[in-house]
Specification:
The protein is of the alpha/beta class. It has helices spanning 3-20, 53-65, 124-130, 132-140, 153-159, 175-180, 204-217, 219-229; strands spanning 41-47, 74-80, 85-88, 94-97, 108-111, 146-150, 167-168, 184-185, 190-192, 196-199, 237-239.
């Protein structure tokens, strides 16, 4: 039994016991549903100067770890407009986006937030002022691609025109701006409007990622992740 199968089975048994109230030892041979070998689920997390550390890390870790709870491979990459480059995040963490901007080659494009409260560099407001990233996000839209934003990363989607007239949410301090710019604000932690999925402030990146796992890979994968992370998805998910 390989490492992925062992971890997936052990956590699924534990999750089954928690969900049903049956002790783990008597939960039977419950295993996650296997979707069979399919093309990988491809995920890109967008980086920019001043991006919030937790915003970028939570979706990346959750979706990367989901590979242990499904037969479908999951590929998660950090990307940056302009190609591979070094990034300094909001609190000084230095990291590197090793992959080129390629929204035509992904299934999920996730946009974190950071720096919306600052009007100077770096951060979301600076990226909106420069305009290159919003234009690239607007051009990325196509059939088969889900674009997701969390925290003030949703304001980048708003600047791209992607939230106008659509159900959405963002960090509570940016909600008035989102509504003023045409977004149909929903008081939910995660808002799923099909090919546009948005989430509230900072820690909701965990809930966004768990919802995307549930939607794309199934409930068993999401339950396995919750057990492994020792975190239960919070709040309401609004769906179209």
């Amino acid at each position: 039994m390989n490492r992925r199968t062992l971890l997936r089975t052990a956590t699924a048994l534990s999750a089954a016991g928690l969900a049903t109230g049956v002790p783990t030892a008597t939960a039977g041979a419950a295993t996650p549903s296997a979707s069979g070998r399919r093309t990988p689920l491809r995920v890109q997390v967008v980086l920019f100067q001043g991006v919030e550390e937790l915003d970028l890390a939570a979706p990346h870790e959750v979706l990367s770890a989901s590979d242990h709870f499904t037969e479908r491979d999951v590929e998660v990459r950090y990307v940056a407009l302009g190609g591979p480059r070094a990034i300094t995040a909001a609190f000084g963490t230095r990291l590197r986006a090793d992959h080129r901007w390629a929204p035509a080659e992904t299934d999920l494009l996730i946009v974190p937030g950071g720096g919306y409260a600052r009007r100077e560099d770096p951060g979301v407001r600076a990226e909106i002022s420069r305009g290159a990233l919003p234009r690239a996000l607007a051009a990325a839209r196509r059939p088969g691609l889900t674009i997701a934003g969390l925290c003030t990363g949703v304001m980048l989607l708003s600047a791209a025109g992607l939230t106008r007239g659509r159900p959405c949410t963002t960090h509570h301090r940016a909600q008035a701006d989102l509504a003023e710019q045409g977004g149909v604000l929903k008081k939910a932690r995660v808002v799923d409007d099909g090919d546009l999925v948005t989430a509230g402030g900072v820690t909701s990146g965990l809930d966004l990622a768990l919802w995307l796992v549930r939607r794309e890979l199934g409930v068993d994968a999401a339950l396995g992740l919750e057990a492994m992370l020792e975190y239960e998805a919070r709040g309401t998910v609004w769906t179209a």
